[in-house]
Amino acid sequence: MSAQNYPHVFEPLTVGNKTIKNRVLMGSMHTGLEDRAKNYPKLAEYFRQRAAGEAGIMVTGGIAPNISGWVGPFSGFLKYGFQVKRHRLITEAVHQEGSLICMQILHSGRYGYHPFNVSATDKQSPITPFKPKKLSERKIHKQIRDFVNCAKLAQKANYDGVEIMGSEGYLINQFISPRTNDRDDDWGGSFDNRTRFALEIVRQTRAAVGQDFILIFRLSMLELVNNGSSIDEVIKLAKALEQAGVSIINTGIGWHEARVPTIATMVPRAGFAWVTELIKKEVKVPLVTTNRINHPQVAEDIIASGKADMVSMARPFLADPDLVKKSRSGDVRDINICIGCNQACLDHVFKNKMASCLVNPAACHETEFISQPVKTSKNIAVVGAGMAGLSCSTTLAERGHQVTLFEAAAQIGGQFNLAAAIPGKEEFVHTISYFTHLLDKHGVKLKLNHKATEADLSDFDEVVIASGVTPRVPGIEGIDHDKVILYHDLLSGRKKAGKKVAVIGAGGIGFDVSEYLSVDDPSKAQTIDEFCAEWGIDQSIESPGGLIKAHDDPAARDIYMLQRKTSKPGKGLGKTTGWIHRLSLKKKGVKTLTGVQYDKIDDRGLHITVKEKPQILDVDHVIICAGQVSNKALYQDRDNYHIIGGADLAAELDAKRAIKQGTLLGQKL
């Protein structure tokens, strides 16, 4: 594999007096490092590694132009000259590696999670508890001046440009969209008035920074909310932005309050490139398309087909900082593919935690995760080829240890294979393929279909127990009935479910199993057209906001999802994806019951009691998703024995913790 395989991706692009060496933009991601001055050396190393990985141009996480623009209390902002110094750490690191970087200016508007937020009107966001103050005309002009000042300070910090965040429902978008702007003065009402704020920011910024400073404008092309912008308005604004002096237009998809998935793994690859294509023929400035682009071939196909001039990859650079470099000169199998899970990136950020990556725990922690070659090579056994065992084995072998990996099954991957069987999680197989490649690359001796014994482990210097979990079997009368199927037997294909099914357990596994049961063919991935139909996306964007009536397909089976707790089903699901799973199953007609007491299972079905009322669910099968227990039979309390992953702690299946724990132990031994 080489750049010859992706000629369009590796074609340089000249913008002003600067040349971007390829067509890959590393999109903006809030990491949490931006918010504290003490963390800027870490942030500089984070960007340095991705610049060394040959990202053509990068955009920082959002930096507010003032305090009212904060995303949350004390988040990153740039308003004063003394703040420039910390940003120069970033630009110097990036420029030393030969890449370009722009700072994103983001004013959160009514999305600000603090009492100082402001907006075009005083309409409160449905996802934040603070009502914004309506900006007066005088304060609108002050906000514009603060945007310009922020851009000038970014230029002083030696950024190559700025990205002005005009999408995703933030302040500028709040002025643009009729959904949030019903002002009756010169800044609202008509299209020209609603777009005046955005255009004044661009015009005044261009005048202040000169012609050679890159100005990217992130334009909300598909808002996915009611009473939003139509395609005609988007095109008209794109043309006006071009005339106002933007260098590049980046695609923005959806608002944070939208009830349509936009970046989760169940969104088809390049699922919104068609949006950028609608605008591309209307303007001459380079256009960037975005969302769910995680592989060089996907990027190549988009650019070669003329849908966009560049592609934005954000989370893929968390998963693998060397993504572009490997695409150009190495084996694509060597790329650690982003699987779009959101579990360590967006979920962390929305919980006010430092971002990272499930498949690459070193992301945003580059100064803490350091692998050094070993001085003395040891002979190490790892038991279990799930995520913990794989990450530990490959890290140990890469450092120079001799590693033997025992796996009782016929394939590696453990419970991750079950996750990959879930509709919308097909890309999880990439992580298994990646580790398969690393095992071979680093010379790990793999023993499949080999259940390790104490005798097998007796001669090793170190032993790592990563033997995972087994499904927990609850003590329900009739649990051994023929109607009962454990979740791992279902998802592995060893057993099939009938047309009427009860799922015991409404945690992550219960939801996954219900998704699996809700379709006729779980292995068939959705097309972009099917996805848009299911979620009511107007592919002409003629309707305001781009929404039409969703096409609800009933589940392929009658499904009951049950839990003992009285709390909302799926309460512990990911913060940024849980709502998708709940809404998806609701749309398919899956019935949920809480506060359930399980009485017995017999030929008549599942006997339960809900609110002191007994009832019988006439089902063909009962799927048990009642958690797991650790499989630690081989573990010994000795200095040379170590236990990680599910064998150490059997909570909800937690690949994020398993990979991190395996990596850290691999770096330590």
UniProtKB/TrEMBL annotation:
Domain named FAD/NAD(P)-binding is located at 379-637
The transmembrane segments are none
Which part of the chain is the NADH:flavin oxidoreductase/NADH oxidase N-terminal domain?
9-329
The coenzyme or cofactor needed here is: [4Fe-4S] cluster; FMN
Alphabetical UniProt keywords: Flavoprotein, FMN, Iron, Iron-sulfur, Metal-binding, Oxidoreductase
Q: Domain of life here?
A: Bacteria
The UniProt similarity line reads: In the N-terminal section; belongs to the NADH:flavin oxidoreductase/NADH oxidase family.
Name listed for the protein in its UniProt record: FAD-dependent oxidoreductase
Q: Which organism is it from?
A: Marinicella sediminis
